[in-house]
Specification:
The protein has about 230 residues and is of the alpha/beta class. The chain has six helices and 13 strands. Helix 1 packs across helix 2 and helix 2 packs parallel to helix 3. It binds D-4-phosphoerythronic acid. D-4-phosphoerythronic acid (DER) binds next to helix 2 and helix 4. D-4-phosphoerythronic acid binds next to helix 2 and helix 4.
Length: about 230
């Protein structure tokens, strides 16, 4: 329950970063829900004018629910700001994302933004990426067996992400499938990220290196928001 309160805390704090007239990338996940709700409150009560660029059906439907005007990602080339959650964040603000299988569009939106801000509760902070969370890798379905074999050759242990209330594998908004890959904790994931980006059939990894400049961290001690900057 406190985790939910921490997510609400950072979601509300991040909504305070959005200034009138901004075009703002909107991520995906349970922390971002609080961000969108607060944006909706500000649109309604403070008459905030902003355009949201959602990264999934989840965030698009929430923008509709809260009357936040939106643009499609394909209509944009750069954004004033982008706000998103993460599954793990290291001391350099590098992150593992993709818990919600939306990381391909999230990474495009993060890269478009003049400033990309992560909103997390303190449980997401790690010393080293990949300690608790596997690396999500989106692949085109045709390349599933090929990339699975190559990931094993790289020392990874890939597992196809299966739907929970849908039989069969998760299918992303791009028609891809997701492999969750565990690596030995000593693995240089920056090198792995580079090797994966030249592997035919790989769409995108959930490794977000050198993208976030700021992270808002909800801390249970005192229910405060700590800002980390790079
Ligand atoms: O899928 C994603 O990258 C999300 O941002 C996710 O990983 C964070 O989700 P949460 O805010 O529900 O923990």
């Amino acid at each position: 329950e406190s985790n939910k309160e921490l997510k609400r805390l950072v979601g509300v704090a991040a909504a305070g970063l959005v200034r009138d007239g901004m075009v703002c990338g909107i991520g995906t996940g349970s922390t971002v829900v609080f961000f969108i709700e607060e944006l909706g409150r500000r649109v309604k009560e403070d008459k905030l004018r902003l355009t949201g660029v959602p990264t999934s059906f989840q965030s698009k439907l929430l923008c509709r629910k809260y009357n936040i005007p939106t643009l499609e990602i394909q209509d944009c080339a750069e954004l004033d700001l982008a706000v998103d959650g993460a599954d793990e964040v290291d001391p350099d603000l590098n992150a593992i994302k993709g818990g919600g299988a939306a990381h391909t569009r999230e990474k495009v939106v993060a890269a478009m933004a003049r400033e990309f801000v992560l909103i997390i509760d303190q449980s997401k902070r790690v010393e080293r990426l990949g300690t608790a969370f596997p690396v999500p890798v989106e692949v085109i379905p045709s390349a599933l067996q090929f990339v699975t074999a190559r990931l094993r050759a790289l020392g990874g242990e890939p597992e196809l992400r299966m739907g929970v209330r849908k039989d069969g594998p998760v299918i992303t908004d791009n028609g891809g499938m997701v492999l969750d890959v565990r690596f030995d904790p000593r693995t240089d994931l920056r090198r792995i990220d580079q090797e994966l980006h030249v592997l035919p059939g790989v769409v995108e990894t959930g490794l977000f290196y050198d993208l976030a400049k700021r992270a808002l961290v909800g801390r249970a001690d005192g229910m405060t928001v700590e800002t980390l900057e790079k």
